[in-house]
Amino acid sequence: MNFLIVNVFFNPEVEGIPPSLDGAWATTEWNPKYIDRNPARKAYVEKIVAWSKEWAPRVDAAFQH
């Protein structure tokens, strides 16, 4: 059995999105319940989701050979 661990680090601050002032997941601006309140955060999340969908098949394909 083979395993691959991939760590990818994203930093929204690099793109000008300030850090959340609330560290509790239940109330943070990054929580899916509240993400719509901040268009910049929502766009960032959508960008990361799109990136992940693009790269997942490439990683999977690497294990098919």
Which word captures the global form? elongated
Mean pLDDT across the residues is 90
- What assembly state would you assign to the polypeptide chains in this entry? single chain
Largest sheet: none
Using DSSP, what is the number of strands?
Answer: 0
Q: Beta-sheet strand percentage?
A: under 5%
- Gyration radius (Cα, Å) is 15 Å
User: Which residues sit in consecutive blocks of at least 5 with pLDDT less than 50?
Assistant: none
The first-to-last residue Cα distance is 14 Å
Number of helices, where a helix is a run of at least 4 consecutive DSSP H or I residues: 1
- Which bin fits the share of residues in helices? 25-40%
| Global structural class | mainly alpha
Textual characterization of the structure:
This protein has 65 residues and is mainly alpha-helical. The protein has a domain at 24-62. The protein is 37% helix and 0% strand. The protein contains one helix and no strands. The longest helix has 24 residues, at 39-62. The radius of gyration is 15 Å and the shape is elongated. The two termini are 14 Å apart. The model has no long low-confidence stretch (mean pLDDT 90).
